[in-house]
Amino acid sequence: MDHKQVAVGGDFNRIFDHKDYLAMISIPDEATCILRGHLILEEVLNLWSSKVTNTEDLYAGIFVSFKTKLVVSKNLGLSEELFTVLDKVNDIRNRFSHRKGYQLEKSQIEVLKNRVDDVVESAKVQKCETFHVFVNGKDQNGNLKELIYTWEDSDNRVKFVLVFVILMLKITHWIQSEFNSRGIHYTIISTENS
């Protein structure tokens, strides 16, 4: 298959580290997958708060919970619709943290999918159910292998990853637009690979 890859860096490098996304799709443990996504979203909140306040690290020196960062981000202009979606992901993460043996529920994925599909309509991104993830590499025997993850063939963990990737694309579009409208300097370093 012929796929275009774009490397992202600059101010967005902690949000788009490919190792995080590979871990989310590869690790079969739901809790680890959700936690990794939650940590990425926390970096989104850190980036937003730091850039809007022109501070290197607004939260340096103290522990600040995700929920507090989310509320501060909203107070700094994060949209209500993104606030609601990120709060839902935080709720899912907290269920894993506070309920031994908790498993991701199909109804939670459906609610999250619908919210992500409806958020940031200006971002021309496909719906979660039509998005596919392609992963290639070598298997344990050194043979090249390509896996394709689709909505209809995936368990709840992989569906979460599909929803999460669409959410990140939409968040990035929204943040870029907001930074531009506010005159905030940021960098996204892109390199096209064949």
Fill in the keyword field for this structure:
194 residues; two-stranded antiparallel sheet; two-stranded antiparallel ribbon; mainly alpha; 53% helix
Overall domain count: 1
The averaged pLDDT comes out at: 87
> Terminal Cα separation, in Å?
11 Å
Class inferred from helices and paired strands: mainly alpha
Shape: globular
Ranges where pLDDT stays below 50 over 5 or more residues in a row are none
Helix content: 40-55%
**Largest sheet descriptor:** 2 strands, antiparallel
What does the secondary structure layout of this molecule look like, with pairings?
Elements: E1 5-7, H1 18-26, H2 30-53, H3 66-75, H4 80-98, H5 106-118, E2 133-138, E3 144-149, H6 156-182, E4 191-193
Antiparallel strand pairs: 1-4, 2-3
Helix pairs in contact: 1-2, 2-3, 2-4, 2-6, 3-4, 4-5, 5-6
Give a concise summary.
This protein has 194 residues and is mainly alpha-helical. It is 53% helix and 9% strand. The chain contains six helices and four strands; from the N terminus they run βαααααββαβ.
Structure description:
Helix 4 runs antiparallel to helix 5 (106-118). The model has no long low-confidence stretch (mean pLDDT 87). Helices cover 53% and strands 9% of the residues. A two-stranded antiparallel ribbon has the order 1-4. By secondary structure, it is mainly α. The protein has one domain (5-189). The longest helix has 27 residues, at 156-182. The chain has helices at 18-26, 30-53, 66-75, 80-98, 106-118, 156-182, and strands at residues 5-7, 133-138, 144-149, 191-193. It starts with a strand and ends with a strand. It is globular, with a radius of gyration of 17 Å.
